[in-house]
Amino acid sequence: MSLRQVLIALGDPLVEIQVAPHGLEVDVHDVVILDPDDVPDVRPGDLALIIGARGRGALSLVRAAGQGGAAAVAVKVDTPSPMLRQAAADAGVALLAVRPEVRWEHLEALVRGVVSSARLTADAGVGEVLGDLFALAQTIAALTGGIVSIEDTASRVLAYSRSSDEVDELRRLSILGRQGPEPYLKMLREWGVYQRLRSGEEVVRIDERPELGIRRRIAVGIHAGSQPLGTIWVQEGTTPLTERSERALLGAARVTALHLVQQREPSAAFRENLLGSLLDGRMDAASVAEQIGADPGKPAAVVVFALRGQESADRTQHELRRTEMTGLISVHAAAYRRSALVTQSAGRTYVLLPDLPPTAPLLALTKEIVAAARKHMGLRVQGAIGSTVPTADEVMVSRTEADRVLDAMARDLDTDVATLADVRSRVLISETLALLGEHPRIRDPRLAKLDPELARSLLAYLDAFGDVRTAASGLHVHPNTLRYRVRRAAELGGFDLEDPLLRLFAQLQLRLT
Question: What pLDDT score does 120 carry?
């Protein structure tokens, strides 16, 4: 991943960029430790953490890291050091200033987690895209309206959301790798909070403690089966948590569990490719269902999403926004169905929802996801819903339907959520027009002679079944003007509007203009 993405993930609480001679798009491949007592061993793309030397005392190691091709060095600084900045600039290596109170082992674990997560995502290729934990924490923060941290079973912070809101003392200390106030931790133990988080899938509410500087929280345990993997904490900021916070948090815990299992067991990355393999025909539905614990004999459906209105964004921005969107979709899908699978393919995000009841509210779920993307992330997302098929063996029917609707949306269907049943005529016309657009030989050259004004007027006339007044009203022209234009179009094209087949085909082809 790029140095910029590392900095976005870690944020101000831990490090601050001092100088970046080659910009922030340099690639970070690994994290290494540099100690003054050891021979420097740095390779291109390393992020070197200089431990045991501060400020000017780290000059020689900064230069050595630059000679080895390191992407960046991290040094603890008590006060700004122009000499250190100049040394980094001369060595061609980015310099990150680490706050004095930050624990090195905590920073190392966080950075390794960010880099390793990016590597796993890249290696997975197609498949369920969960993004890194920091991106996921940011998504949870957007959905809940709170300030998020993800911890392992030892209460070590793995990732957290960026926030301009006011954080309390417990969160601040947690990010810095230090324990929270002991009186508060003792109360959590006495209230059985930790036991409840470890024992099951339950959102736990924790009241604020103003005397300790602790704000209200909700939390949920992260589990793989009966095995606890960690906890997600959501601190309330200056505004109350949203009404749907608890449901969003439940879905987030299920998505996070998949991510943590993947990090622990590389072989679990296979699960990420399940939906991609099914959609590509490389794996049968029964095998996929067995892997995710679903019943292949029960109804299933595919929903597909696409990001719109991002044409002006550069590739990096577009990919980041698409990852944000996929994270949001994963959280909602997991909250609705534990066994849901999500994957990206050809610029789209596919969701497989197995084990569906006969009257599954897929339209409501899809509208909820689209609305959440717009509200929390400012993204315009379109969602197309395939029909619910009787068994998992028929999911490709559902996928094909969803793709057809989304294709029509991209061409000329101005709606954000739809099923084939809702817009079947529009989809069929859109597909026919696409065929006409791709094959000029099946178009009528006589219609191509018409200028835009005549073409528009003739189409309005045909759409109104020859009702001149209705068509003229829609075009905001006088009926006599429309009559003249229709006659002129027929004369210029040399066709007879009394021919019903000509009228039928003209209505189609004129929609291409």
Answer: 47
> Which residues fall within 8 angstroms of residue 282, CB to CB, at 6 or more apart?
none
Sequential DSSP letters for 198-257: HHSS-EEEE--BGGGTB--EEEEEEEETTEEEEEEEEE--SSPPPTTHHHHHHHHHHHHH
Contact yes or no for 54/82 (Cβ under 8 A): no
Tokens of 218: 């909700």
Measured in residues, the chain has a length of: 513
Contact 354, 301 (CB under 8 A): no
Task: Grade residue 311 by pLDDT with cuts at 50, 70 and 90.
Answer: low
Q: Report d(CA 182, CA 406) in Å as an integer.
A: 54
pLDDT value at position 383?
Answer: 94
3-class SS of residue 64? helix
Residue 386 is classified by DSSP as: P
Q: Which segment, 125-139, 163-177, 372-386, is predicted with the most confidence on average?
A: 372-386
pLDDT for 92: 93
pLDDT, tens digit, for every residue of 484-512?
Answer: 999 999 989 888 888 888 888 888 888 88
Report the interhelical angle of 452-463 vs 500-509 (nearest 10°).
Answer: 120
Helix pair angle (133-144, 315-336), 10° resolution? 60
Residue type, 462: L
Helices marked H in 350-466: 362-377, 395-411, 420-438, 445-448, 452-463
Question: Which segments of 3-103 does DSSP mark as H helices, in order?
Answer: 3-10, 59-67, 82-91
Residue with tokens 């944000």: 324
Which tokens is 106 given?
Answer: 């905590």
C-alpha 37/C-alpha 229 separation (Å) is 37
State the Cα–Cα distance between residues 272 and 352, nearest whole angstrom: 12
Order of strands across the sheet that contains 147-152: 157-160, 147-152, 227-235, 217-224, 203-206
Pairing of strands 94-98, 15-19: antiparallel
Contact 355, 337 (CB under 8 A): yes
Q: How far is CA 97 from CA 3, 54, 90, 131, 294, in A?
A: 14, 10, 17, 26, 49
Enumerate the H helices of 240-394 as residue ranges.
245-264, 274-279, 285-292, 315-336, 362-377
As a whole number of angstroms, the distance between CA 502 and CA 498 comes to 8
Instruction: For residues 393 and 299, give the distance between their C-alpha atoms in angstroms, rounded to a whole number.
Output: 10
Q: How far is CA 275 from CA 283, 343, 366, 378, 474, in A?
A: 9, 6, 19, 28, 47
Both structure tokens of 392:
């998992």
| pLDDT at position 108 | 80
* Angle subtended by helix axes 315-336 and 362-377, to nearest 10: 140
CA-based nearest residue to 406, from 306, 301, 325: 306
Q: Are 203 and 335 contacting, i.e. CB atoms less than 8 angstroms apart? A: no
